[in-house]
Design goal:
CATH architecture of the largest domain: Sandwich
Structural class: mainly beta
Protein name: Peptidase S8 and S53, subtilisin, kexin, sedolisin
InterPro entries: Ig-like_fold (IPR013783)
Helix content: under 10%
Largest sheet: 5 strands, mixed
Shape: rod-shaped
Length: 242
């Protein structure tokens, strides 16, 4: 495996790398091997496209997106055929060749939120990973691990960088994160978690007794009832003597 400078590497980050598959005999260059990799058996999470450089070397392109491919990976090679005998094919070779994908230098997924009247507005930045299927948005009412649920009914396109959650209650706090989805429908790790509250635009309902007159020196009682869709923290009475 080599980087853009042609140097051999066994740890990779964001970018495109060349994977060189070498054979000990001449192979049929009309038949491409199946070269793939993944973290677990059967190691076919991602398949490489490439071409023959010679009868004994096949080179494939391997684009890496750290947020999606991160971790320890294993190559799998199969189905290449010998040039002088098409019945002689490579078996399933896996586990011998491995590499690591590191997050060093990876761009962060940054999510921001804004409370609005009747909704919570979300926007994010994630410009480096442009070859993807899109995004998913997750929400929680507590912010605790395992409590987040996906709220978009279908994947948001890679062109979208904002989302407005209108299924919220005013005054109630909600927590959010988003993930990147690749074309194989694999999701990245979550972004940062942001929280916000929809703005309450409903005024409280106030009812009180009306005193048109009182007798001097005799105490008077004023009663009031205050109701609000979120809650009442306190009431202050203002009055004027004429």
């Amino acid at each position: 495996m080599t980087d853009k400078n042609g140097d051999k590497v066994d740890t990779v980050g964001n970018g495109t790398y060349d994977v060189h598959v070498l054979f000990n005999r001449d192979m049929d260059q009309e038949t491409d091997p199946m070269v793939s990799y993944g973290p677990d058996d059967p190691y076919t999470d991602y398949t490489l496209k490439g071409q023959w450089n010679s009868a004994r070397e096949w080179v494939g392109k391997m684009p890496i997106k750290v947020l999606i491919n991160q971790g320890h990976q294993y190559f799998r090679v199969k189905d290449a055929a010998a040039a002088d005998d098409h019945w002689l094919t490579t078996g399933t070779d896996w586990g011998r060749f491995e590499f690591d994908v590191t997050a060093t230098g990876a761009e962060a997924l940054t999510l921001q939120s804004e409370g609005r009247v009747g909704s919570i507005y979300l926007n994010w930045t994630q410009d480096e990973y442009d070859t993807m299927a899109g995004y998913n948005i997750y929400r929680s009412e507590t912010g605790e691990e395992g409590s987040f649920k996906k709220i978009n009914s279908s994947i948001l396109s890679s062109e979208e960088k904002e989302y407005e959650d209108k299924k919220v209650e005013a005054g109630k706090k909600y927590y959010y994160y988003f993930t990147v989805v690749d074309t194989a429908m694999s999701e990245s790790r979550p972004s940062n978690i942001t929280s916000n509250t929809a703005v309450d635009d409903k005024p409280p309902v106030i009812k009180h007794t009306v005193l048109k007159s009182i007798t001097n020196g005799v105490g008077a009682t004023i009663t009031a009832t205050v109701k609000d869709n979120i809650g009442v923290e306190g009431v202050t009475l203002f009055y004027r003597m004429e």
